[in-house]
Amino acid sequence: FEQGVTDTKQDLSQNLGNLKQKAEEKVKSKEEDIKNNVQDATQNIKEKAKKVHDNAEKHAQDLEDGAHNHLKPLVDIPDYGHMSLGGSMIEASSDSSSNNSKSASEITIGEAAE
């Protein structure tokens, strides 16, 4: 009988040791899986953040270029020597001593309509 009890104790002890080892292996495996998942998620977040940042920089550059191209014609107004309004020519002259000759800035809308 005592031998049976001793054998059973040894079997239970061995089974307990095996279960403990399997549990530790599962815990390590799960820890490794979690660690890998966190690393993958972190890498994905970094890549997405970089894409968002790059897209934002490109969009900002496109907006800046668009604004520059939109405003450039307003800044680079060509200096014509005359203006044509309704088929009549008005000379833009810096000689303001003549009554018939006014600079473009001196011509009023009413005069231009005449």
Automatic annotation (TrEMBL):
Q: Where is the composition biased (Polar residues)?
A: 1-18
Where in the sequence does UniProt note compositional bias of the Low complexity kind? 88-107
Residue ranges annotated as compositionally biased, kind Basic and acidic residues, are: 21-35, 52-68
**UniProt superkingdom:** Eukaryota
Q: Spell out the residue ranges making up region: Disordered.
A: 1-114
Could you identify this protein by its name?
Uncharacterized protein
Q: Which organism is it from?
A: Euplotes crassus
